[in-house]
Amino acid sequence: MEKELKLNNDGVKPDTSIKEKLWVTIPVILLIGLLATLIYNHYGEFSWGGFVDGFNQELLIFFFIGVFAQLVDGTLGMGYGATSTSFLLAYGVPPVISSTGVHVAEMFTTGASAISHHRFGNINKKLVKHLLIPGVLGSITGAYLLSDIINGDVIKPFIAVYMIVLAIIIIRKALAKNIIKKKTKKLGFLAAFGGFMDAVGGGGWGPIVTSTLLGRGRNPRYTIGSVNAAEFAVSFASGITFMIFGGIHGWQVIIGLILGGVMAAPLAAFLVNKIKRKPMMVAVGILIILLSLKTLSKISLPTFW
Fold first, then answer.
1. In the list 3, 111, 230, 297, which could disulfide-bond 131, CB 3.0-4.6 Å?
2. Nearest to 58, CA basis, from 292, 254, 293
3. What's the pLDDT tens digit per position in 242-277?
4. Which long-range CB contacts under 8 A does 293-296 form with residues at least 24 apart?
5. Of 254, 35, 246, which Cα lies nearest the Cα of 140?
6. Is the pTM of this model over 0.85?
7. CA 302/CA 280 separation, integer angstroms
8. Euclidean distance between CA atoms 100 and 181, whole angstroms
9. What's the CA gap between 242 and 236, in Å, rounded?
10. What is the DSSP code (8-state) at residue 30?
């Protein structure tokens, strides 16, 4: 009888209902607050003529990069940063602008992705809580180093090599056979390392965290949904750090990536259990390798520009 009194008319505990709503409410509030702050602080940088002129072929390219990167990330649980950064570097966008653009855009795209995965029931909340704080701390550290200490032009070839390593990890995980389920130890260290490398390299959270968890035999659907949900906090933390210490540059890159990513996020969350993962992972890995090799081929002078 007491148990019945604790339930509402739908047979659900009120506390549970409130907690469920917070998984959507918090990202929405943070994104609205971020958008309002950006408009308030940077509206003077734009004019109507500049706004109209901004809708050109380049913006369209960044838009499609955002769509493709989000479809990859939302369905595989990895690859947004690696894919978008590889495309941007290959297109000639400087490392600091590409990394800042990717992470500011990810603040919106990962929010949309987290809400979408929650809507389709793809989230393991316990796993998200284990990844959240260490991932945020790692991303803040990496973003601070890249914004205030590390020279982006100098590390450009190292980022390209890092992207190749991430691509090899993705391909290796795709080709792995007979994955035996094992208990994942040191989740905090894994999340901190993934967040740090993601901020410095412009990608890595998914390939490092998702691939490790999937390699341990975790359920793909809940692993991908949970890692994507945690990535919202990680991206938000690194994006704020980039804005504080490095400012915001490359608005066209950011707007294109945001529009493409937000539009693709619900479709990616829906497709997470509908597509064949292995062929897509191999294809994405090969694509990242080719783009990174193209970036390396352009770096021949000692000054790296």
1. 230
2. 254
3. 777 766 767 788 888 888 888 888 888 787 767 777
4. 293/160, 293/164, 294/90, 295/86, 295/89, 295/90, 295/156, 295/157, 295/160, 296/157, 296/160, 296/161
5. 246
6. no
7. 37
8. 37
9. 10
10. H
